[in-house]
Each structure stands twice: as structure tokens, then as C-alpha cells.
Specification:
CATH topology of the largest domain: conserved putative lor/sdh protein from methanococcus maripaludis s2 fold
Strand order of the largest sheet: 3-12-15-14-13-16
Strand content: 35-45%
Largest sheet: 6 strands, antiparallel, barrel
CATH architecture of the largest domain: Beta Barrel
Helix content: 25-40%
Oligomer: single chain
Number of domains: 4
Shape: elongated
Structural class: alpha+beta
């Protein structure tokens, strides 16, 4: 029994020595490190914004009626003038028939009045009609003329209402939303179809009053689209001069440059204006996004220990600034972190700083 225990201890000791030897013989992984730089004077004035199409429209109607048919679906490409929604217009057709009958009647009355007017004008010239008779005939003619003009204008009004029963595309683009189906009741002002021109986007951002005086039309900015983690160049197109209805936030419109990135209306962004902040900013720690390590819902960065091993440290991150990200906690100024490695890093791996 004693001999078995001794043999077991000997085997375990040999295994431990072998693991230690393997660990000692493992070649260190060559890495590159950077020292954390704390930026106490952040050059960016930032503002949150949202992407929207530069040219978009929410189409509605001015009349109430049942929808006969919706001719398009979300995602369909449409041409300018293409029929999108048909609304029942039986009442308009009946009204148009009445108006046409009224025009026929008014035209007959006008023609008859015009003949009488011309006849009395000749009689008056020959002193065969009195001034009173001529005045009465002139008034009768003018009233017939006015009734015919009113009937024609009513026809124009009915024809304009037909435009609201057939909703057409105001420009060529893509259908982005459909809020009604055949059989539904369309109400005045109710959005029915939304259309936008793809490819050209803008961002609407809200800038606080403490910084708006430095934002000028025409300056170039970086727009970070959070969902795809990409920065896109843009240019300030409009700067609001009033925050009366926006709670102290001033509206700034930024036109985005054309890009191959997949961006869609409604995506949230961070707009970075390259102007100095008026107020003193708190010390900010920035590290490149390429150095970030992701493990599920956690994010961190590899740092170096005094014994030249890699240490994975978890971080709490803030806003993204171009290719850098703000570190809110987990990494302090003047500490070192690993930017790149020639081999796969893991917690406790031996490293060789290049």
C-alpha cells in the first residue's frame, strides 16, 4: 500500500514538472503595445442624430373614402406619377355629372343672353331701344356669363378632388411604409404610403445651446453610424437659429457623402463637429477600436503584467470617435494595452513586447 502511494506521488510530481517544462518552453507571443493617452480637452463637439432620406414624402389624402386597392408593397420601386392607392370616388363621379349638366345649362343660357345682348346693342345704336332696356339686357348678359364661369370653376374643383382619390408617386423612389389596405377607410391627413429616394441621406442632429454658436454651415463633420460602427463624412447644410420648440436643443442638418456603407433611414448616429468645446471637458481615455476584445456581452482589452504576460481586462465603453472608443472605466491614463499580436492571445499568455 505504501509503495502504491509513493508511486502515485512520483507520477504526479513528474506530470507537474512536465507541464512546467512545457510552459517554460512555450515561445512568448510577440505583441505591440500602446500607452493610454488621456485627452482632457476633447476636440469634438458631439450630438446624437438620426438618419433620414434627403428626399422623402408621407402621402395622404384630403378626402374620406374606402380604399379600393393598394397597388404597391413595401420595398417596391416606383416611378414618378405611378398610381399607388385608389380610393372609392363614386360620389365624386356623381358630382362631376351634376357639374357637367350645370355647365350645359349655363352655356345655353349664356349663348341666348349673348344673342339678346347683341340684338339690343344694334337696336340701341339705331335708337330703337331705350337706355333702360339696354342696361337690363347688359346686366342679364353679364349674369349669364358669371354663371357659366362659376360652373366651369366648379368643374375644376371636382377634377382636383379626383387627384386625392388616386394617390400617385410625387417622384421616383422606393416605398418604405404602407399604412393602409384595401377596404380600410382613408381619412384626411392620414399617412397612407411613404416613399423615399434611396442612396441620398441626411442626418438631423440636436446640438445644445452651449455649443451651437460654433457650428457653422458648410463645415465638414464625421458621422458615426452606431449600428454598423462606421464613420461617414458629411457637411453641415442647415443650422437652426431657434430652439423655441425643441427644448433648448438646436436642429442641425448634415448631408452625408455618398458611401458604400449600408445605411438606412432611422439609424441612430453620433455627429462629431471638429470644433473645440467651450466648457472644460473631463479627462477622457481613448483607445483604438481594433484593440477591443469581445466575449459575448462583455468587452475588454489585453494589458501587460510585470511578468510579461497578457491580462484580459474588462472595460465599460462610451462613445465612438472615428476609429477610437471612449473608455469610461477599467483602464487608466498611462497604462499600457496590447494593440496587436502575432499569435492568438489568451489570459496569462507569455508575451514579448516589440
Amino acid at each position: 500500500m505504501i509503495a502504491v502511494i509513493a508511486l502515485s506521488i512520483f507520477v504526479m510530481s513528474c506530470g507537474s514538472d512536465n507541464k512546467k517544462a512545457v510552459a517554460d518552453n512555450t515561445s512568448p507571443i510577440a505583441v505591440k503595445v500602446n500607452a493610454v493617452q488621456a485627452d482632457g480637452n476633447n476636440p469634438f463637439v458631439t450630438a446624437s442624430g438620426k438618419v433620414q432620406a434627403e428626399n422623402s414624402a408621407d402621402l395622404s389624402t384630403r378626402m374620406m373614402g374606402f380604399v379600393n386597392k393598394v397597388h404597391v408593397n413595401v420595398g417596391d420601386e416606383v416611378r414618378k406619377g405611378q398610381l399607388l392607392v385608389s380610393i372609392n370616388n363614386a360620389d365624386l363621379q356623381a358630382k362631376r355629372a351634376q357639374v357637367n349638366a350645370g355647365i350645359t345649362e349655363a352655356t345655353a343660357a349664356f349663348n341666348n343672353a349673348q344673342k339678346d345682348y347683341n340684338r339690343f346693342k344694334n337696336l340701341f345704336a339705331d335708337n330703337s331701344a331705350s337706355q333702360k332696356e339696354m342696361d337690363d339686357m347688359t346686366a342679364h348678359f353679364e349674369m349669364a356669363k358669371a354663371r357659366l364661369e362659376a360652373a366651369n370653376q366648379m368643374k375644376n374643383e371636382v377634377n382636383s378632388q379626383f387627384a386625392y382619390s388616386n394617390i400617385t408617386a410625387p417622384f421616383s423612389g422606393v416605398v418604405t411604409s404602407k399604412n393602409i389596405e384595401a377596404g380600410d377607410m382613408a381619412n384626411p391627413g392620414m399617412p397612407l404610403i411613404s416613399v423615399e429616394v434611396p442612396g441620398k441621406f441626411e442626418v438631423i442632429a440636436m446640438v445644445p445651446e452651449s455649443e451651437i454658436s460654433q457650428i457653422k454651415k458648410g463645415i465638414e463633420v464625421d458621422v458615426v453610424v452606431k449600428s454598423i460602427n462606421k464613420a461617414i463624412k458629411g457637411k453641415v447644410a442647415e443650422v437652426s437659429t431657434s430652439a423655441k420648440n425643441t427644448g433648448g436643443q438646436f436642429l442641425v442638418k448634415v448631408l452625408l457623402d455618398e458611401t458604400g456603407a449600408t445605411i438606412l433611414s432611422g439609424m441612430f448616429t453620433t455627429v462629431q463637429f471638429p470644433v473645440a468645446k467651450k466648457a472644460t471637458a473631463s479627462t477622457m481615455v481613448l483607445i483604438p477600436t481594433e484593440a477591443i476584445v469581445t466575449r459575448g456581452q462583455l468587452t475588454g482589452v489585453y494589458t501587460t503584467s510585470q511578468s510579461n504576460t497578457a491580462v484580459l481586462r474588462w472595460l465599460r465603453l462610451g462613445r465612438t470617435y472615428g476609429d477610437n472608443v471612449e473608455v469610461l472605466s477599467g483602464l487608466s491614463a498611462n497604462e499600457s494595452y496590447i494593440v496587436s499580436a502575432e499569435g492568438k492571445l489568451f489570459n496569462g499568455a507569455k508575451i514579448s513586447i516589440q
